[in-house]
Amino acid sequence: EGVIGLALNAAVLVLLWNRTIRTGWSTYRIGMSITALLAATLSLLSGISCMVHIFRFEYYAFIFYGPIVYLPRIFCDMSLFVLFTLCLGIWQFTPASSFLQYLALCKPHISEFKRVIISYSLSIILMLTAMPFYTTFHAPVSQRPVFEQIARSVHDLAPENAFYAYGATLFGSKQYPKACIDLAIFSVAPSYSIAYVVFIWCCVRIYRALTSFGVQLSAKTLAMQRSFLTMLLLQLMTANMLQGLVPLLLMGGPVGGFITALITGIAMDKWTLFISFSLFGVSIVQ
């Protein structure tokens, strides 16, 4: 899957840049290229590693298998960091393309270069402010044996089985201050909320712009407007800029089960694989 995804996204990049494009459309080519680059990176990670989750009581672990475990641990450290960047980017890049469309429609005097800079500035800011929490699951050396033992117990691993274990606790402690709750409150929630507020604002502004011409529109023009607005809203369910209501819904059930497990205090153990399988499906949906 990883190799095929990498090849397909490489083909997309070649097709996008190996031909001339109509004046004024290069803005969208840049947007699609960024999407392809991010998807290619995710495909590359899938090709060299297999990451699964384990939720056991207050412990949240990431277990890596595959070729990457035969490389120095620093490579797996970087892979987990990049994986967080891509996964949170699902919504951090949501406002970028909608803002591009808003500027193209409502601010045509702005150059294409400035449109791209303005549109992606917010996404980059959201990403940079969230990044300090991307190492939440890079457990210190003294804490690693806890997550390694959880992996061996839940996955029934033999001593010779190779893997890398990462993890964090739900709440922090004096000895291990990094916690899942901090990632959720200070990284995920703010970037998610801001991204979708901006997206909705762009949709409203575009709708008002399309309906404020003050002239009698033909049936064809009205149909084109409806199609454009539908396309804009359905960006939440397509591959555009790693946007994805469908990917989020795909993980909604398993994550809901995780929240239930936290409230009830039970160990999900192997049931956590449903979340891992859902995460694997995100790149396919995109």
TrEMBL record:
Coiled-coil ranges per UniProt: none
Lineage: superkingdom: Eukaryota
Pfam family for this entry, one: 7TM_GPCR_Srd
UniProtKB keywords: Membrane, Transmembrane, Transmembrane helix
InterPro entries per record: 7TM_GPCR_serpentine_rcpt_Srd
Transmembrane segments: 26-45, 81-105, 117-137, 183-207
PANTHER family per record: 7-TRANSMEMBRANE DOMAIN RECEPTOR C.ELEGANS, SEVEN TM RECEPTOR
Protein's recorded name: G protein-coupled receptor
Species of the source: Pristionchus mayeri
Lineage: Eukaryota, Metazoa, Ecdysozoa, Nematoda, Chromadorea
